[in-house]
Amino acid sequence: MIQYLNRYFQLEAHGTTLKRELTAGVTSFFTCAYIILVNPLILKDAGISLSIGVMATIIVSIFGCLLMALWVNAPINIIPGMGVNAFFSYTIVQSLGLTWQQGLAVVIISGLLFFLASITPLGNRILATVPGSIKNGITVGIGLFLTFIGLQKGEIIQPSESTFVALGDFGNPVTFSTLLGLLITLILFVRNFKGSLLIGIFVTSVLSFLLIGKTEMIDKEVDFHAYGQVFYQAEFGFLQISFWIAVFSLTMIVLFENMGLLSGMLTDIKKFPRAYKAVALSTIASGFFGTSPTIAAAESASGISEGGKTGIPPLVTAILFGFAALALPVIQLIPGNAVAPVLIIIGALMMKSVQNISFNNFSEGFPAFLIIVGIPLTSSIADGLAFGFIVYPLMKAAIGQWKQVSPLMYVIAVLFLLNIIASSALVH
């Protein structure tokens, strides 16, 4: 078996070992495991029941991770995306007024458009058209978004009526256990201790259990029989303007978010085209399986930080997701703040892309800056992307360099602007 895995995943060619890859896989899973609980809670606000949402989340995560492991051989997990799931429930369903069944149809069509872009020259044109500053800005912005989520999960920051966010109460056992877990994780990580992020999740879980007590469970088990209520229940509202606005918005999100994530995490850029196609196929499958779109998980950086270089980490993640369906009560013992230290560290790692942005050239740096601050401050990847893509050609035109901008970039900017106008009109 070891020899087969070595040959199939080309461990020696990648300069890695099976032990290292397995450790990276376990780390990646536990960093991503929160999605089993968090995604269904968000889908519930769209009208999908908790137990069904759990099952849909697990199934599509297994599908996406296996696709990335066996077809791409890259250390990237594919799971339902944070941010885009909120877009599904709160924008597509609640704001635009579509049913969750129509929302699933939006996911399928957006995935198909995403896949067409990935297999045609259009995909390569988009990839070549989007400036490096924008791509790197997306990576940094998402990194800050993950850090912001981690700080919230750990209650290191809290809502404030006067300043929107404020420092949390360090006497709070959740905050204290998170900070202590972060300190231990950081010490292990900077000393290059193998499995440091995984140990950090475990240590923070134990500290939380000792200081807070048992985690409240959202469901005792997965309802396999009820899952049929959501599988392939998409309803296509082709005659509704709001339906097509949702399709456009979601397509732009999955296209450019995954472009930024894969560009920022893949060390072997030759794997990008196939990885891009894999995420697109998984997005299509999301609509059939009954959940919001999957993405190339930023949390995969935890496994990459542990030395993961092949498809074994997502393979391990897929297997553990399968066991999670049978051991949901155990998974639910992991408190939400246990992943906070890892999310904060991953966000810091993704900040490295900021050095590739030329802030000396303000016409390049400012649009990237808007994406970087726009994503976390609006808690919306779509809005953050729109800021940067609209302003970039405006900045270039202002300094007389409008010819240096691809016509396709102007088209994308106009589409983002029209989408903002149309979405605002429908919401209000």
Features:
single chain; 428 residues; mainly alpha; two-stranded antiparallel ribbon; 4 strands
Share of helix, binned? 55-70%
Approximately how much beta-strand content do the residues carry?
under 5%
Q: Quick one: biggest sheet? A: 2 strands, antiparallel
Which ranges are low-confidence, i.e. pLDDT below 50, for 5 or more consecutive residues?
none
Per DSSP, the total helix count is 19
Could you tell me the radius of gyration in angstroms? 21 Å
Sequence of strands across the biggest β-sheet: 1-4
C-alpha end-to-end distance: 59 Å
Tell how many strands the DSSP assignment holds: 4
What's the number of structural domains?
Answer: 1
Shape: globular
Average pLDDT works out at: 86
Query: Topology as H/E string?
Result: HHHHEHHHHEEHHHHEHHHHHHH
Oligomeric state of this protein: single chain
Overall structural class, as computed from helix and strand content, comes to: mainly alpha
